[in-house]
Amino acid sequence: MLAFEKLCTLLAKQNGVYAAAEFTDHGVREETFLPSAGAHNCYSIAKSFTSCALGILEGEGKLRDTDRLFSYLEAPHDERWDEVTLRDVCLHKTGTPAEANIDIDVEDFWAEGKTDFLQYVLSQPLLYEPGEGPFVYSDMNYYLLSRVVEQVTGRTTAAFLQEKLFNPLHFRGNAWGTCPQGHTLGGTGLFLRARDLAAYGYMLACGGVYESRRLLPQEWIEKAKGAPGTYGYGFFNTPDNSYFVAGGMYGQTLYVFPSTHSAVAIQGHGVQTEEVDHTIVPLYL
């Protein structure tokens, strides 16, 4: 039995899986498990796409991850923010507390008066030196990066990636949420089909190339996937560096296997990935 068939057999036994897809050098395979919308919120997997937008711009010579965040943004801020680099933001090491986050998937930000996302984040104190404090995971970090992409390109991050990534990968329809001011969320709220998510993973597995066209610098992928056993720029790398993963709330998962030019995407609500990690992943290595 092939790896994808074994994966589907396993996922069919779970109650909350919507869809799965596999993309390899031999093409794409898809499976739907529950009647549902075609495109689903991939939650924090969106962060990896915002990271790739930065990577495309770095490849075009329009920015570098070592640049200061406020060389691109204009807003009142504590002068300590002037030391924060794009790399610090990617790595969730800006120095802000957890309270700086706005979890739009859970909280009512209107009721809490957090409708100006940029102003709210910048109003929070920096408790640590940028890049030196603890890892503090926050959707708002990738919202800041999305605002940088917008400032550099003159377009929303969603519109920029539509041209640079989504269309070349033949996405079959997508949507990305915005803040009340109309800026792409960056850290969550991206709705995709399983096939399209897998195509994105396959491009990453092939070093940034899809259908003989380079879409992303390989050097960026190496930085973005992170050091072995760590979080990078929207991805988690495995301790043995054999594959890397982008994940989102409720079990959304994208597995990227560079050694075999393959990728697997799983979408659902309450997906149990532990058995997938132990029994299916080794089949793709």
Radius of gyration: 18 Å
> Regarding CATH, which class?
Alpha Beta
- Major pleated sheet: 6 strands, antiparallel
Sheet/helix structural class: alpha+beta
Name given to the CATH homologous superfamily: DD-peptidase/beta-lactamase superfamily
Structure description:
Helix content is 32%, strand content 16%. It has 285 residues and is α+β, with helices and mostly antiparallel strands. The strands form three sheets. The protein has a six-stranded antiparallel beta sheet, with helices on both faces. 46% of the residues are buried.
Provide key terms for this protein:
single chain; six-stranded antiparallel β-sheet; 32% helix; globular
Overview in brief:
By secondary structure, the chain is an alpha+beta fold. It is 32% helix and 16% strand.
Task: Compile the SSE list and pairings.
Elements: H1 3-11, E1 17-24, E2 27-32, E3 40-41, H2 45-59, H3 86-90, H4 117-123, H5 139-153, H6 157-166, E4 175-176, E5 190-192, H7 194-205, E6 209-210, E7 213-214, H8 218-224, E8 236-237, E9 244-248, E10 252-257, E11 262-268, H9 274-284
Antiparallel strand pairs: 1-2, 1-11, 3-5, 4-5, 6-7, 8-9, 9-10, 10-11
Helix pairs in contact: 1-9, 2-5, 2-6
